[in-house]
Each structure stands twice: as structure tokens, then as C-alpha cells.
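Lab notebook, bench 4. We co-purified these components, and the gel suggests they stay together. Before we commit to crystallization screens, I want a quick structural picture of the whole thing.
Request: model the full complex, all chains together.
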Amino acid sequence: MLAEIGAESAEELFDQIPAEVRLDRDLELPDGMSEQDVFEHLRSLAARNADADSEVCFLGAGMYDHYVPALVDAILSRSEFLTPYTPYQPEVSQGGLQAMFEFQTCMSELTALPVSNASMYEGPSSVASAAYLALGAKKGRRKLVVSRGLHPHSRETLGTYASGYDAEVVEIGLEGGLTSADELAAALDGDTAAVFVQNPNFLGGVEDLAALASAAHEAGAMAIASVDPMTLGVLKPPGECGIDVAVGEGQPLGGRLDYGGPSFGFFCATEEHIRRMPGRIAGETTDVDGRRGFVLALQTREQHIRREKATHNICTSQALIALGGVLHLVWLGKRGLVELGELMVRRAAYAREALAAIDGVELLHEAPIAREFAVRLDAPVQEVLDRCADDGIAAGYPLGRDYAEYENGLLVAITERRTRADIDRLARSLEAAVAGAGKSRDTAEARS
Amino acid sequence: MLAEIGAESAEELFDQIPAEVRLDRDLELPDGMSEQDVFEHLRSLAARNADADSEVCFLGAGMYDHYVPALVDAILSRSEFLTPYTPYQPEVSQGGLQAMFEFQTCMSELTALPVSNASMYEGPSSVASAAYLALGAKKGRRKLVVSRGLHPHSRETLGTYASGYDAEVVEIGLEGGLTSADELAAALDGDTAAVFVQNPNFLGGVEDLAALASAAHEAGAMAIASVDPMTLGVLKPPGECGIDVAVGEGQPLGGRLDYGGPSFGFFCATEEHIRRMPGRIAGETTDVDGRRGFVLALQTREQHIRREKATHNICTSQALIALGGVLHLVWLGKRGLVELGELMVRRAAYAREALAAIDGVELLHEAPIAREFAVRLDAPVQEVLDRCADDGIAAGYPLGRDYAEYENGLLVAITERRTRADIDRLARSLEAAVAGAGKSRDTAEARS
Amino acid sequence: MQRDAARTIFERSVEGRRAAVVPECDVPDTQLSKLIPQNLLRQKPAELPEVSEPEIVRHYNRISRRNFDLDTGPYPLGSCTMKHNPRLNEKVAALPGHARLHPAQDPKRAQGALELMWNLERSLSELTGLPHVSLQPSAGSHGELAGLLLTRAYHEDRGQERSRVLTPDTAHGTNPATVTMAGYEVVKVATNPDGGVDIDDLRAKADESVACLMLTNPNTLGIFDRNIREMAKIVHDVGGTLYYDGANMNAVMGWSRPGDMGFDIVHLNLHKSFSQPHGGGGPGAGPIAVSDRIAPFLPVPRIVRHESENGAGPSFDLEHSAEKSIGRMRGFQGNFGVFVRSYAYIRSLGGDGLKEASETAVLNANYLLAKLAKGRAGKHLPLAFGERCMHEFVLTGDPARRELKVKTLDIAKRLLDYGFHPPTIYFPLLVDEALMFEPTETETRESLDELADAIDSILAEAEEDPAILTEAPYTTPVRRLDEATASRNPVVRQPL
Amino acid sequence: MQRDAARTIFERSVEGRRAAVVPECDVPDTQLSKLIPQNLLRQKPAELPEVSEPEIVRHYNRISRRNFDLDTGPYPLGSCTMKHNPRLNEKVAALPGHARLHPAQDPKRAQGALELMWNLERSLSELTGLPHVSLQPSAGSHGELAGLLLTRAYHEDRGQERSRVLTPDTAHGTNPATVTMAGYEVVKVATNPDGGVDIDDLRAKADESVACLMLTNPNTLGIFDRNIREMAKIVHDVGGTLYYDGANMNAVMGWSRPGDMGFDIVHLNLHKSFSQPHGGGGPGAGPIAVSDRIAPFLPVPRIVRHESENGAGPSFDLEHSAEKSIGRMRGFQGNFGVFVRSYAYIRSLGGDGLKEASETAVLNANYLLAKLAKGRAGKHLPLAFGERCMHEFVLTGDPARRELKVKTLDIAKRLLDYGFHPPTIYFPLLVDEALMFEPTETETRESLDELADAIDSILAEAEEDPAILTEAPYTTPVRRLDEATASRNPVVRQPL
Ligand SMILES: Cc1ncc(COP(=O)(O)O)c(C=O)c1O
Ligand SMILES: Cc1ncc(COP(=O)(O)O)c(C=O)c1O
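Here is the predicted assembly.
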């Protein structure tokens, strides 16, 4: 090969790099290993994580331990879906493009909004991206009103992005577990570009999206909701509530837990925003012979065409994981999604009641819930969690770091994998843990 | 659909079955379950097995814990290989047929015999099938001489089959861990159709196949060897030793442990036996346009054509698992197979020495070994194994059930997955276990 | 499908390339000939290909696309029960507790595996109506051999020498081949005009030399033999056993049981009725179920269940010897990975689900039959026997051959161009130009309609111009292959 | 590839069919409106398709074969680093300890994951020559945005308002798009005749209003900008930061480090240089590495390592707040599954292996370039700039268009018929009719030869009859598609 090139050595080719910026030593990285040794190394690292197979997992906070049907992995692991790039050559990318089109249809159906893109990175950055759209759509307005029921990660990400948008973020509080209508009314003004809410909100409460949306619209602002797609079999879809843009975290749909990623985000909107959408959108068309096919549509929104005038900078997104979402949804089907949603609502109600009955556990709010709910413990939450972990239970997500006002708050998530027996086990463990932790605190207090 | 058929109900179609043999009750089987529930049920069963991920596994006896490269599962799980039937329509089965052709080439190279079929069920039934070939090839001769170094499962299976063959099986013993040349000489006569040996033999000893084969040939008998394919990178291949038919257990090549199956067997022979071979054989040919292709060759040997005159009754064999073997071999490649073999030989030597140095452990034989070896414990083997299991080690295969003469014998297997550190750990555990078991026996004896 | 020229992995080999890195030697690097005598060592390495991982993955991905498979389209291969392979089964089979369990593991530490096998045995017992099960045989024909060796042991135990085994002329090739391997002589029984066994012929041939009658019911014509009880009586009366080839179990699960029909020994194909993928020719498993009188002879090892004394639940063990056992049929405990898949399948469907599966299989077959009968096939490819069918049916292409000058083979090859796998052809032998369709329960009505339409179109083509069929296929990776030369001058490995 | 008419899964829906069985309700079956007010409940179910599992598997298997993929054949898509995706990485990513680890798990019980992330951070730090790493960004463009927000925070922390970001006109589209999203104004810098940045233009534009210079090096022409140190000095002298778009890291791993070139902030594309499969458009990950002065602003959460006091080995934790941090860029800890794959990749290759990978990538690119130059491409598709290249190179199809009347698009489409994925086309923008080839290190010499031959044949066809190209492709699942209508009258979902 070198002869063909006319080079003496492969190193010679690196003469293109001036000596002063060439690394003149070996990389200080471990030596390469055999496949077997890498496998053993990774396996030993993995063994030091307590995963949802080794514990009964009531953790949620945006990512949930749903049962992912076996066909998802079987199909996603096919080279034909796993290894291509973004479909720049549509003639040989019809599989991926059709998958995007089907994804868009699924998400559009779920949210009852006519337009969906082909995926975003994940939930929180989709929220922040929706703000970019809103600021573009509502030129001149710079204020973003955000419910405290929005996922803390979404609020923080929005805050990070907003420094680039030169926008002001105003937070409004919760009342009885739901976004305060009064605070919202007070915050809305002629400078407000959009209102952001979440459904169910971070504490699990089912919001009245329609009321919130109409308040936003009255002030001339857009209404943007982040929604949990797995609840949309039972909860009124944002598109029917007047929401302009619905985004969200796609992990519940066919996603692994994966310590937080890769998952996918989704981004749906009303027709009027179609040319402001971020990211890839597949569209149906025909070929020169009149045969049906799919392409990346509306590319003139995108960075590779429009560069600094693009509607967003996103390029690589989450195509494969989004296909996992399609597969899960298609597997569930029209009835399955509803049944699953109903099961979750009923189990969540059962769990909430079971936990509320425990001495030292009370409800944080009594708003309606769909799959997750918040309680307040009469004991240090971390100690309670440690005790439950000893019982093989990840009892929930402690609220204190994100919500100083809920110091010993605990968020408990239900999926179709958490059976009544699991819930009963949680209740027993929690009861003992709260009692135990309370006692040890009493002792400590008595001692001090 | 019923209208099209002209039936009132689907049950009506079952009127074809006379009432007296219709089942008039429900099956007494559990109700169907959701995918999730079946998964959990199977997961809980699986959790009650101590597998080679949860222990350090020195078990062998024909199936070995080799490192199977990740690409094997990735390729075998492709629908295109996983779900077709036997390639009866070659025009749309070229993938599977070519895989068979490549398999045959691999096995032929490994054994240095020109003909290989496309797979047998597994090792022991391949041995029994080789006997069928030999009895056909050596018409009139009814005696099968079998080394006691042949896997007990092979000997037992041969015994089972032989009742149908109306053949006599004569066993010859081992001497110093190797097939006794004297006993062989004594057993051979004009009625002997074939001699069966194994290499390495069941106790791990590397046999002098060439000497055994020439003894067989002198008596006009065939020489049949069962060989461990993973040792053929270093051990002289049967084809170069005058062996007529080489068979064996394919599990070491890309196979799962799978509690014993499905694995594959292989069946290789000299050219003269090609029309006596059992099972599928892929052959190269061309299509009407002169394009290269593959077909099932020599089908006139087979049951679907020849029926009662077929060379064997085998139909479905182990195509998919055999492809796994090809993949593993191709991944190893020409040099990898040799390196792996060398590593095993060296580690086995190290392990043998390390174990022999333990008080209460002595070698069962001093014959050369390739990957497995036998020791004799000065303590009840079951108790020793239980103690090692408590240390997380499956120390080996106890010989007593198969060989009454080696009551506390233990067979220890080495693969590239058993590192020096693992071997040292085994040695320590075994030392303590033998000492401990010896002690408890002493106590028990003292007591009684 | 890939249409480029076939190239083997050996032809991609380039000296020095490699995929695997073998772990470093961490023990003394002793010269090999110091450990094993030089004359026992290999001198010249096997010529395995030298290729990189990307090349391996690409090679096998590419050749995989030269296969038609069940996930490509309908695969109505009669007698093969090409039902969907649920992906759950692959997932549970791959759990380390299954896939990584060494077969020689101490039964104490393999309780989950033994319980699974026990449960599967019990399920198959209930489905077959026979009390004892051995999971050991590796496939259908292996089950058949086990069955005939059991028969032999049974008769020998009673001091009887019997030499003949009866099989109908519709029998699958493995049946007669097995008879020979088991040391018996095949005696064919004729088929009556209804497609069942000719009872008179059976009666005439059934005597004390008969060890066994091997039967498939429904048989390979897809016809349930209504005389089964009578036949059983005839054979039992002369002291023979009845063997049930369970390849067609998918027709009758939960509807009728071979044990209740009078059979003594049954094999089931887990790779047919119980959803184990066929893998392009295996693996499968062929468990056998037997009646009480055959039970003592069942292969070892056997799974035994011990009730606990302290109420802690049962435990399981392997029993390695039994006085009258025929012994082992193979290594270790059988194709456990297949058991896992089929057990998952049985638990997924449950008793009702299995019965419904058979119902739908029979419904689908009859629907396809009816659809075909109403089109050109009704004329050119009539049903060979009877009117309705069980889970499969056999058409005869005899009229098509005579009137349209196209053979069954031509129709099959042309179906490939239409994107369907053809039915089984030229089997059973007694039907001229046979086409044997088994759609299974996992095909939808839509796909059956498409298949019927395709066959109709193909027959229309034949009416127009038979050459369209006789030269088919056109669109496959290769076209018709020269099988004769491949058998006359076999090239069965790559010359290197 | 499958050539039948496209049909969506929605078009396969039949009322009443289903795949999933939802577990039975094991708690009180309360009416839903008793639990959630009726007005908040959905009235009409979403019209998801009603299909069975076999149909799902078949549908997606079939449409998958309408994709070209890396395991089908060479995929020399410039700037995308289509290197082989080792299957080991998929296997380790799927281990339950990784795939089933909840992101909110207590760090005490996720030590393996945190250690893996820590190790990956350290590896990327060593590779980039920059001490601090955040794995958080989800892809390249997300890393860019993080980088510019870091720049903004850095300047603001020093009390400076800066408004402009410089990018060369060869920059990838995400660079200017990111600049706008981060609230800056794009200022383009010209390219010099060698394909590098025009230093004079840079000097002229570099003033105190400049927040940052964004650069790719080697740039999108595959050319290593030899003036990098000088450029860094110019920008640093006016107080700006230097951002390195690491999309081309595959050219220089172990050979040259952005930190040593003077860059302050780097993003890497784990889905390019570090073997994460592209998935048809993601997922990926775009970790950033930064210099000391940028470190205080890095996103949270951050991974911290605590040395143990008792010698028990280090422990790891997440730090959720830091005074000057720009905050979160996304939910939870980042695309951990991608980290696992890339970490496995880095450990597989090791330091030497990574260096060798870059060496081979550069060798392969130069070989392909030389091969092409010797054929018809030398005349019709000359190299746009320079003589040699790093890991990729850009040809211009301008002569072909003028002399042969075929556009780059036509050549690309015709390559599809030859079984190759085309190179990146029409990028970078400053090259007319650009074709950007990046073979990567995992292609063999043979496949490069085949690719060069294919291009040569295609150009021969063009010399003969340009229509062969302008009407291509012919053999793909669909032929040229009407993209204009798709954007004018977008149909972006199935009407139901
Ligand atoms: C009727 C019948 N009997 C027996 C068999 C043999 O089964 P196997 O292939 O599992 O050995 C088959 C399989 O084709 C069959 O269709
Ligand atoms: C040079 C360059 N920069 C940035 C990007 C954007 O990376 P990503 O797609 O990961 O957002 C790309 C990817 O195409 C690229 O080639």
C-alpha cells in the first residue's frame, strides 16, 4: 500500500503534522487486551452495580423499569438498524426512514399533535429545545415561565441553555402537588414566550393541562408540556388540551435503564410550528417510478443546510433508541397501551394507600396520580433508603436534593413490573426502616 | 374465514377426529402468562443454577468453558440463520448451504480428513453413528473394540445403539492413562469391524493415534477416533495418523455450555467413505447461468430419498450450532487456534503440577495431556467438591461413577478462561478441602 | 437478497490478518515438545482463514441475506411446522443460569434446570396422554430410534424375538430409515382411498413377527385416521407396540392425545410444535413419552423428583442407572437450551393457548385449502385425498403436469420469485407431484390470501406460457442449481 | 435488498390483533375515573397498530433489509468515521449491571458505573491532552453547545461581554448552528490555498469581541492545519478561547493532541472515533475535555473520586453542584450505554492500538486517494486541496460535471448500484461538487481496491453515456426520490 502512495512508511504520512504538536511519547493508557479480558473486566465492573434485576426497583423520576419485550433487542441488534449513519442516501435507507415515519406517527398519535420529529437526545434537552422554538415563534418575548412540577433536570437544563438564548426563566410553585394557578397567573405577562409544565408532574400529580394551556394562551404565550408517554394510554393527550408543543423523555418506551442513557426525547407540535421544528423529520414521497418512499423532509430547517440560521444545531440524535420505542408501542398496540396505563394507575393507587397507612409515612400531596407519587417520611430518608436496600429494595427517589422544601420526601414509581406482592414487600420494608431509622435517630437525639 | 371454508365453527373442523379419541376436558396445564411473567419465572429458575459465570469452573468431561466471541451470538441470532428450515430449496438457502460448506472445510482442515458432513447431534451419538458406518463398510464383521479411554457417554451410547446393530462391543482397558496396546492386540480379530479411541482420552491423556490405527488396520478393522476439536491446533490430526473416521463433540467450538446441549457433533472420514456418510453434506455446484452455488449433495444416501436403505436416519441436525463453530474457528483463525492450544497445554501442565504438589492429591496417570488431567484425592471426592463449591469453585468432574476403579478420582479441565490466578485459587481451595475432608473423615472414622 | 457471486470466507483470507487476540501466557512458556512428545504434535497448522472481525461480521451478514427465512415471509413447508419463534424464548435461553450451566454441574447446584426439565416432562406427558417422558433424544429421528430400541428392549424383556416393523407408505423417510438402524425389517402398509391406513392390509400383515407399528396421526396427508383405535387393537392383539411420530402434533394439541388413541411411544418435535427455531437444519429435540409398560426401559439419566421431608419444597436429581434401561441415547442430559425455549413457549400459551394454537393451525390450513380450491389450483392442483384437512394438506400437481406441462418443482421455483417459500414437494411419495402445505397458526389471514393469490397468478402464467415456470426462479441469489453434478463429482470442501 | 412496495406497520393493523399480554390486575379493579378526574382522562385511544408478534418481527426484519449498513459493505462516508462496531461492545453494554442500572441509583450502589465513567474520562483526557472531562453531552453538536456555553461562562466570569465566534468556511454545519444557539454571531474565516485557515484573514478578524475560534483539525478537507500553534496564539492574544471539533479525532489518536495544539475545549464523538454504532442517526455521545481555566464551569453532575482512608481502594461519587458550573446539559449522567461501548473499545485497543488505528486510517485514506488518482478519477475527480491527506480526503467533481456532464450526486447514486455507500457529498461547501471519502482503519485493502475500481467503472460509464449515471440508481429498494415535494407538502405521519 505504501508503494501505491509513494511513501516510505506509514509514519511518514504523519509528517503532515508539524513536529511541535506531535505527541512524542506513547499514550499513557493501559495496553490493549484480548476480548475475553475486556469482557471479564467489564463484567467485574458491572457486578459492582445494584441493578434492577438484583433489587426490586421503585425508582422513577423520569426513567422507569418497564418490561421491554424481547423482540426489541432482537430487532435493534440487527446490523441493518444498528450500524448505518443518518439516512443521507434515502434510496438505501428506506428501512431507517420508514422507522422514523412510523415513530413520528406513533408519537403524534400519543400526543394528539399532528407533527413529530424523529427524535431528540432525551427529555430535559427537549424541554430546553422547545424553549428555543418558542423564543423564535414569539419574537420579542424573552420570558419563560416554568412550573416547579417540571423535572428538576429539565429546569436545570433549560437554565443552562437559557444563558445562550438570553432568556429569563421564572419559576412558579406547586400547591397541593399541582402547579399553582395563582402563581401562574401572576407570572404571565406580555413578555412571556412560553409556559412549561409537566404531566404527570415530578411529584406524580396529574395536572389540568387544559386549564394551564388556556391561561398561557390568554397571555399570548405558548403552552409547552413535557409528558410521560407511558401514561398517554390513560391521560388526556396534550394535543387535546391545547398544548402547542409536547416533548418528553422516551425511555419508558422500549428503553433500557442504562444508568440514564442513551434514551430518546420526542418533540411534537401543532402544524403551525412544523418549519420551526428541531432535528430530523422523515416525510413520505415517491420515486421517479412513482414508488412510495421516505426521505428526510424539511431539511432546510437543519444545520447542514441552513448553518447559522438553522432552527437547531442537533445532528446525530437517537434514531435506534427511538425505533425501540416504536417496537414497544407496536407490541403493546392500541389496547395494550391503555391496559398498561390502567394497571399502573390502579397499582399506584394501591401502593399509595399501602404506604400512607404506615406509621411515619404520610402523603406529600393528594393530587391524582398515574404511576408515581410522593410521600414524606418521619425519619431521615437516606437512612431509610439504606435499610430498604439491605432488604433488596430500591424504595424510591429522595426529593431533598432537588426540593429543599421536601427534606424527607420520597418519590415512589410503579410500573407493570412491580406487582402487588412487590408493593406489599416495599410497605413492610419501609415500615420497618422508618421505625428503625426513627429509633436510631431518637437514640442519637437522646444521646446528644 | 369460516365462511370461505364452509364451516360453522373452528371446532367443527375437529369433527375429523372421532369422538372416542377426542380429549373431552381441558388440558391440565397452567394458564398462559404474559411475556413478563414467563420471563420472571424462567429467570427465577435460572437463578437456582450455579453457572460458570457465578463459579470458577474446572469442569470438562467433553464440554468446556471456552470464551465464545461476541460475534457468534450476534450472527446466530440473525433471523436469516435462526429461523429457516433445512435448505430444501437451495436457490433461497445459499447462506445456510455456504455456511455448511465452510463448516465442512473447517472440520476437514482440523481433522486432516477430506470429507466432513454438515453436523451430527453431538459427540456420543456421532461415535455410535460411526459404528453404523463401520459395520456397513466392513460387512460381515460384528465386533466393535472400544477403548476405556472413550468418553463413558460415548461408550454407553454406542452400547445402546449396538443393540439395534446386533453388534458386539468389547472394551479394552487403560494403562498409565492410555489405551492398552496389549489389550487392543488381544481383542482384535477377523470379526472386528472397528476400533474406537478418543484423543485426548477421557482422562486427558494424549494417545498415540497412529499406533492404535495401524494396529486396527493390521487386523483389517477401521480406526475411529473421537477427538476434541479445540486441541487440534496442537495435536497431530487424526487424518495424519491413519484414522479412517474422526468424530467428536463440537461444543468447544463456539458452543454454549447449555447444561449439555444443543451442541453439535462432527463426522469426518476418508474419501472412500463419502457415500456411506450420515447426514447432510453441502456440495459446490453451478446454476443454469453458470453462477457458483451450493446444494445438499449426495442426497441419495439420506432417509428422505433412500428410506430404509439410507446410510442413517438423521434428518434435523445442528446446523445453527455448527455455524457457531465456524464463527469461533474463523475468529480464532489459523494462528489463533494454535496459540489457544499452546496456552491450554501450558496452563494444564502448570495446573497439573500445582495440584500434584498438594498433600493428599496425586496424579492418576502421567501420560502427556493437552487440557485436562486426572488426579486422585486422598479424601472423599464429593465432600471435597462441596467444600470447593463453597469457595465458589467447581473443582472438576468426579470419576467414581463412571470408573469404579478411580473412586476418588477427579478430572480437572483447563481452558483459556482459567487463568493462572484461577488455578492458584483452585490449588489453595483443594488443599484446604482435602485436608478438611480428610480430617472430618478421620474424625468420623475415629468416632465409629 | 444478495445476488453477487458466492465467495467463501477462505477466499477472503490474507496471511497475517486476525480477529482473535489470545490471552497472554501467564504460566511458564515451556516448549510444547517438552510437554507432549513431538510425534504427537501437529506440524502444519490447519488452514483456517485469516480474517479480521469486521470481515467476519460482514461476510456472514451478507451470506445470511442469501437465505429465505421465516421472518422474511410465509414458509408453508408441510410437515415442518414453521411457526413463529417468539423472541422471548431466545432471551430466556441466553440467561447465564441456562446458557452457562455446565452439564456436569452437581445436581444440587442445578436445581433450576432440573425443575425446568421436570416441568417440561410433566407438560409433555399431559399433552400426549402418556405418563413417562424422556427428554433425551436430540431430534425427531433420534426419538424414533429411541422408540424402536425401547420396543426391542420391551420385547426382549418378554423373551420375544420380533423382526418386523409396519409403516404406512405415507410415512416420513426417517421412519423406515430408523427401522433399519434399529435392526428391524420394514413392512409397508397400504393407504386406503380416504388417505388413512388400509385396515385390511394392516390386518393381513399384523402377526407375531411384528414388533411395532409406526404411525403419524394426522398423517402426512394431513388426514386424521379415524380407525386409529381399531388399528391399535389389531397391533396390540398380536403383541406389537404402537409408535406415534409426533411431527404433526401441532394439529391436535389439547384436542386429542396419542396416549388416548392407544399409542405406547410418542416422540414430539420441540422444533416443530413447540417453537424452537429450526436454525437452518437444527438444533431440535425429540422427547419421547411412553406408557407404563415401556417405562422401565427408558434411557438414563432420568430426572427424579424427591418430596422434601421438612416441607421445604421438592428437590430434583439425576438417576444414572436403571436396571432395564436401554441406556444413553447421547451425551449428558439432552438439548437443554431447546427445553428452555419450549418450556417458555408452553408457559406462555398455557393449556388453553396450546389448544387454540392447534385450532388456528387447522383453521388456517382449511382456509388456505378452500381459497386455493376456488382458484385455478382447484383445477390444476386438486387436493389429493378427502375434503378437509387437519393442520396441513397435500395437493397433487398431476393435472398441472399433464395439462399445463409444468411440474410441481416448477411451481415451487416460481413461488420463490413471488417471495414465498414453497410448500414441501414430492412428499408424501404416494401422491404424484405432491405439494404439501402447512401454514401454521402464526400466519395471518392476509398472508394466506397473498399466498393463494400468488399460486393463482403462477398458474395463470402457466396457462399462458409454461416456460415462465420451468425456467424460474429468476430473482433469487442463484437460479436452478445443478444437483446431479454435485452428487456425481462431489466437491464438499474448499480446496486450499 | 427488499424491493417490494413500502407498507407501514399501521397498514398491517387488523382490529383485535395483539402481541402483548399485559399482566393481570392484582390490585382492586377500581374504575379509573374514581382515581383520576374524568376530564383528565383520555377518551379515544391512540391509534397504535394492532398486530401480532410474528407480524412485528417480520415487518421490521423486512424493512431492515431496505437499509444499507456497515456490515453490508464499505461505507466511506466522510466526517462520519464509519468504523466497524465490535460486537463485544454490544455484549458488555447489555450486561444487566449496565443496561438495568437505574440512573437514580444511589452512587454507593453504582460504583462500577462511576468507576467506568471515571476511567473513560481519564482516557479521553490523555487522548486530548486536556485535564478535565465531562461525559455529559449527548452528541457532537451537544458538545459544541456545551463548549460555547462554557466559553460564555468563562468570559462572563471575567466580566467580559463578547459577541462573535470565528469559524472557517470549511466548518461543519453544526458549528455555526451552535454559535447561534449559544447567542453568538458567526464570523467566517477564509481558507487558504493549502486548505488551511487563511491566517491573515484570521488575524484581521480576531479582536476583543471574539469569544472563540471553532476549528476542526485535521479539518473537513482532511488536511492538518500546520499553522495551528500560530492561530492559537492569535486567538489567545485577544482573549478568546479555542474550540476543537473532535469529529476528526480518528486521524490523530496518539499522534497529536488538541490540548497540545493549544485548544481549550474539545468535544469527541464517541460514535465516530470510539466505535459506538451509529444506529441510523444515533445514539452517540459528545464528551468534552477542557483546560484548567475552563474547568470551573463544567456541567454538573461531575464524577469525583475519593481515595479511601483505609487502603480499601478508591470510591466514586456524583457532585451535583459547583459554584461556577454552567449547570446541566441534559438529564441524569449522560449516555452511559455509549460510554460502556467506547470504554470497552479503548480497553480492547489500548494506547498502542488506538495509535495504530489512526495510522491505519490515514494509510487507508492515502491509499484510496492514490488508487483513485491513478484511474479515471485522477482526471475527472481530482483532489480539491493538497497532495496527501489525513484520515479523509475531498475530491471535486467539478471537472466531471463540466466534461462528462455528470454531477457528484449522479456518481453517488450510481455507486449504490455497485453495492457501496457513497462518500459524503456536497460538503465541505467551499469545494464544488465535493466528494469526501473516509475509509477508516477497519476497511481492508481489498475493499478499497474494489471501491476504487467501482468508481473507475462508473466514470467509464459516464464517458460512454452519462445517462447511466444521471438516471441511477436502478437496483435499490426505491430509486431517486422526490425530496422537493416532501418538503413543500410535507407528509410526516401516517393519516389514520
Ligand atoms: C413426519 C415426520 N417425521 C419425522 C421427522 C423427523 O424429525 P427430525 O427432523 O426432527 O429428525 C419429520 C421431519 O421432517 C417429519 O416431518
Ligand atoms: C466535523 C463535524 N462536526 C460536528 C459534527 C456533529 O456531530 P454529531 O452528529 O454527533 O452532533 C459532525 C457530524 O456529522 C461532523 O462531521
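The first strand of chain A starts at residue 56 and ends at 57. Worth comparing against the SEC data before the next meeting. The interface with chain C takes residues 32-37, 69-71, 73-74, 79 of chain A (CB under 8 Å).
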